[in-house]
Design a protein that fits this description.
Largest sheet of chain A: 7 strands, mixed
Low-confidence stretches of chain B: none
Strand content of chain A: over 45%
Number of strands of chain A: 11
Low-confidence stretches of chain A: none
Distance between the termini of chain B: 41 Å
Number of strands of chain B: 12
Distance between the termini of chain A: 38 Å
Structural class of chain B: mainly beta
Oligomer: heterodimer
Order of helices and strands of chain A: EEEEEEEEEEE
Largest interface: A-B, 27 and 23 residues
Helix content of chain B: under 10%
Mean pLDDT of chain B: 91
Number of helices of chain B: 0
Shape of chain A: globular
Shape of chain B: globular
Radius of gyration of chain B: 13 Å
Strand content of chain B: over 45%
Chain lengths: 114, 113
């Protein structure tokens, strides 16, 4: 069966420090991968999505970047964190061309920038 | 552009009472619609989905939703709410370009005992 792992679960980082959040999917190949951010009371905002290795689409201009170095690995990064980067980050995957499975989400990373 | 509106930010119901969470969408073609639930500090879990066919769809945990094309709505319902249903609920519509889901802002459900 397919599983998605996201870590760390919580993170407290100072302003100006770098960030790396990792997401991996097991039990499937060539998934679509997504990074969402959920700020308090503001719903889910799609940050990045990827349909294949090295293929990243950015939804909003921001201080973050994403990379997909391997088929089932999706990394969210920042060189210098801002206070506004605080939030709950969710990784998700879906099967290409098989929408019937919908999205499967990881358990999320709570990022607090101080 | 596709969008999803959840008019109610917070809803409070008594345990055992019925529940209806509203969702309206904007989309030019037949939509693919989803409801997700999120417990505090957790990821999102799929409750149910609509693609085509029967406009009343059944999901997990006793939830159902009805697709009404004339009203552009996909409201979530449950006949009798349990305290464990307290969570945040998200409606979403599928956007073909990029195989993306567009989410509503969410509705926080509080259950009174």
């Amino acid at each position: 069966s397919q599983t998605i792992h996201q870590w760390p679960a919580t993170l407290v980082q100072p302003v100006g420090s770098p960030l790396s959040l990792e997401c991996t999917v097991e039990g499937t190949s060539n998934p679509n991968l997504y990074w969402y951010r959920q700020a308090a009371g503001r719903g889910l905002q799609l940050l990045f999505y990827s349909v294949g290795i090295g293929q990243i689409s950015s939804e909003v201009p921001q201080n973050l970047s994403a990379s997909r170095p391997q088929d089932r690995q999706f990394i969210l990064s920042s060189k210098k964190l801002l206070l506004s980067d605080s939030g709950f980050y969710l990784c998700a995957w879906s099967l290409q061309g098989l929408l019937g499975y919908g999205y499967t989400f990881g358990s999320g990373t709570r990022l607090t920038v101080v | 552009a596709q969008s999803v509106t959840q008019p109610d930010i917070h809803i409070t119901v008594s345990e055992g009472a019925s529940l209806e969470l509203r969702c309206n969408y904007s989309y030019g073609a037949t939509p693919y619609l989803f409801w997700y639930v999120q417990s505090p500090g957790q990821g999102l879990q799929l409750l149910l989905k609509y693609f085509s066919g029967d406009t009343l769809v059944q999901g997990i945990k006793g939830f159902e939703a009805e697709f009404k094309r004339s009203q552009s709505s996909f409201n979530l319902r449950k006949p009798s709410v349990h305290w464990s249903d307290a969570a945040e609920y998200f409606c979403a519509v599928y956007m073909e370009y990029g195989n993306k889901l567009v989410f509503g802002a969410g509705t926080i459900l509080r259950v009174k005992s």
